[in-house]
Amino acid sequence: MNDKTIDYYFWLNSDWAYLGADRLQGIADKYDVAINYKPVDLPDVYARTGGMLLHQRSPERQAYRVAELKRWCRKLGIHINPHPRYLCPNADLASCMVIAASQSGADITALYKAILRAEWCEDQDISSDITLIDIANKQRLDGQALVNQARTPQILSLYRQYTDEAVGCGIFGSPSYVFQDELFWGQDRLDMLEEAIQRAG
Question: How far is CA 15 from the centre of its chain?
């Protein structure tokens, strides 16, 4: 693996990925580290690693998630709605569209952040073709072409590959970062990821 690369595994429904997105990019820019963006099918990851989807968790765990989100939003100065209108819809198409954009050579940083923002800040349904096309078009990408490409066997195969890779790396949640074979889970571990990059020189 390239010593100057972060493998970034994330779910396109991940509120925590949204909270960490700008800081991750800032770390990569500061140390001239490349990011490999790898959207994953988190429900499949959960099924294979013992995780539970939000609606399956106990009321106590769900309440604590909201409390933690509010704390982190205050700390970071970022607003999200813990209970958006469309909470965690199917993210397969959104994930594959981001992969398709990456394969076409586009800078997908703004695209994936816009998709996350659409769900957590703008009450949009990111499982909708219409929503995703509009988001991509606003990023000056060809939304319809990306949605079409997202449904091709090549892109679907990459999506499955990234999901399998994630499980193989020991990943069980989103966002997760792998640097020099070391796994960091959660945006609250970005400081430790940065320290690992510093140590690597």
Answer: 8
Query: 0.90 exceeded by the pTM?
Result: yes
Which residue range forms the structural domain that includes residue 63?
5-200
Burial pattern 54-69, b for ≥16 Cβ within 10 A else e, equals eeeeeeeeeeeeeeeb
Q: Does residue 1 surpass a pLDDT of 60?
A: no
Q: Is 127 a catalytic residue?
A: no
CATH number at residue 25: 3.40.30.10
**How many structural domains comprise the chain?**
1
Active-site position among 14, 127, 174, 176? 14
- d(CA 58, CA 150) in angstroms, rounded, equals 35
